[in-house]
Write a structure and sequence with these properties.
The chain has 207 residues and is an alpha/beta fold. The protein contains nine helices and ten strands.
Length: 207
């Protein structure tokens, strides 16, 4: 049995929010404030009105997939995954609509990241549990930038090690460590070492 790494993409492998914010300003005259730490309150028009939640989702749908070419690689992410792939299976679990899957696969490939990609909507605990049943790994690690997904995985697959990572420095300083995560590391050099240590131990996380 091999270890399994299940990783998010946006703000873990690829920068997204900084490019999303630039696009909002250029195309929609909307200001995006990372200090809010929450998409629901981070987008304001020139008159100061905050976008409604439905409007926020509409903007995200406008960014994906048409503007995905703006996204840039997180430092050391490609090298870390390449090293980890020598001993583990890797799945990219991304919360995008299913029609974006081919675009995400192609996007990651342009950055030298070629692994299985699965799209998801909602909490990531259930799909992580399904991947565990499929791969039956010796040990599994989950990496994501959103606390809600660490809580979901803790509920559905408590034996998975959970690493909270926010690769965008201007966002990371405003977001506390996820309570349901085992560690918070925002750099892939340090994260790789932490993940390799979990793989070497070969034991599931304690609930």
């Amino acid at each position: 049995m091999k270890p399994l790494l299940i990783t998010d993409c946006d703000e873990v492998l690829l920068h997204m929010v900084r490019h999303f914010g630039t696009w909002l300003g250029e195309e929609h005259a909307i200001d995006f404030n990372m200090a809010g730490g929450d998409f629901a309150t981070s987008m304001t028009r020139a008159d100061g009105t905050v976008l409604e939640r439905d409007e926020m989702w509409g903007m995200l749908d406008g960014f994906f997939p048409d503007q995905m070419g703006r996204q840039t690689l997180v430092p050391h992410a490609r090298e870390a995954l390449a090293a980890l792939a020598e001993q583990a299976d890797i799945v990219v679990l991304t919360n995008l609509q299913d029609h974006c899957r081919a675009h995400r696969i192609e996007q990651l490939a342009t950055h030298g990241i070629v692994h299985r990609v699965e799209c998801n909507q909602g909490g990531k605990g259930p799909p992580v549990a399904r991947l565990l049943a499929e791969y039956a790994p010796s040990v599994a690690v989950f990496v994501d930038d959103l606390a809600v997904h660490h809580e979901s995985v803790a509920d559905s697959a408590p034996g998975v090690f959970r690493l909270h990572m926010i690769s965008e420095p201007d966002l990371a300083v405003h977001v506390p460590p996820a309570p349901a995560a085992h560690a918070r590391i925002d750099d892939w050099v340090e994260a790789q070492a932490w993940i390799e240590a979990r793989f070497a131990e070969g034991q599931p996380a304690k609930a």
